[in-house]
Amino acid sequence: MIQARRAFIGAVLGAALALAFAFFFPRDARAQNRATLEVMVIHATQTPGVGSIGPGIGNMPQLQQPPFSAWNTFRLLAKQSLTLQKNAPMTYTLPNGRTLQITLEDVSAGPRFKIAAAINQPGGGQYLKLLEVTAPPNQTFFVAGQQYQGGVIIIGFTLH
Amino acid sequence: MSLEEQQMMDVMALVDGELDDDARVRTEKLVEENAEAKELFASLRAIGDGVRSVHENAIDVTSAVMAKITPNDLDKARIRRTARIRMGVVSAALVALAAGVMFYVRDHDNATHATNPPADSSSAQPALASAAATGVQVDFVDTPTPVSVFYLPAQATGGEAETKDQPPTTVVWVDDSMVANPP
Fold first, then answer.
1. How many CB atoms lie within 10 A of CB B138?
2. pLDDT tens across A39-68, in order?
3. What is d(CA B148, CA B173) in angstroms, rounded to the nearest whole number?
4. pLDDT in the model for residue A38
């Protein structure tokens, strides 16, 4: 009887451990409904000479590759950290006056953050959904191409 | 006066309860009135009681033995079997539940990681390529202006081994020069 009881307790504990593993292994993703988004706005222009990468941009070798290599001067216009809550849009005003709207849509295992970006129309019209991206943490990606003061705006996004 | 053989047989039958009504009444009257018949009846009934007593005691002993030995062993075996079955059922249920949760988590993750097709919109443009599984994935692009998606290979900043582990950098290029500088 004692052996049966021990075996029963052992089986229950083993199953409980399996349950705990199944539940808590992906807990980092499932429990998260928020993310931190670092936004870096860079102004890329073409200037005579070798150009430069302004202070504050840091080590960003991507700027020396196409399509960024079409410009040789990069200046940091703004850098901000936003806290995203799931399904709660956050807005960020770009230097060209347009407003970028970022929404954290989902956080899956990994974690991987799915965000949607929308931008309002020139003149402050309604937001147009621009893109949806799924990104791991600490992996910078860029949305670029908007014309601004003889150059283009490069927006770097990094999620944590 | 000594009893006749038939009267003795009747007394014995009375003790055994085997007489019909007439014979029983006649023999009971004989037992009441005749001392020898009365003594015989008492003797036979005492013997009968003794035999019944012995028989009943034998049944009690058997029942006591069965109660003290066999039923306990059977109970133990039954309890063990019940415990094993219960343990097996509970364990199987918990393992099945855990497996179900794990499969659900895996399926959920796979569904999330799968590339979503672009929305059914005339202006929607599909993602041009897919980054490495661990990199940034462009799921959806929708803009009236031309869009290109670039995947820049990682460049060494800390050694060649580092670039092998780094996924490419994703660049979504939204060319709004047509909007900003219309022809």
1. 27
2. 999 999 999 999 899 998 988 888 988 889
3. 5
4. 93
Write out the residue range of the structural domain in which residue B148 sits: 124-180
Task: State residue B108's pLDDT score.
Answer: 60
CB contact under 8 A, B176 and A7: no
Closest A-chain CA to B108? A108
- Axis crossing angle, helix B35-68 with helix B5-16, rounded to the nearest 10: 30
Final residue of a structural domain among B68, B86, B110: B68
Query: Which of A82, A105, A98 has the alpha carbon at shortest distance from A32?
Result: A105
Rounded CA separation A92/A115 (Å): 14
Question: Which residue among B79, B108, B173 sits closest to A67, beta carbon to beta carbon?
Answer: B173
Q: Give bridge partners of residue A144 from the DSSP assignment.
A: A154, B173
Residues of B in contact with A59 (CB under 8 A): 157
Query: What ipTM does the predicted assembly reach?
Result: 0.77
Q: For residue B169, what is the nearest residue in chain A, using CA coordinates? A: A141
Q: Which residues of B touch A140 (CB under 8 A)?
A: 169
Please indicate whether, in this complex, the C-beta atoms of B139 and A133 are within 8 angstroms of each other.
yes
pLDDT at B130 over 60: no
The lowest-confidence range among A42-51, A56-65, B15-24, B110-119 is: B110-119
Q: How many domains does chain B have?
A: 2
Distance from CA of B91 to the nearest CA of A (A): 6
The pLDDT score that the predictor gives to residue A158 is 92
Q: Evaluate whether residue B166 is within a structural domain.
A: yes
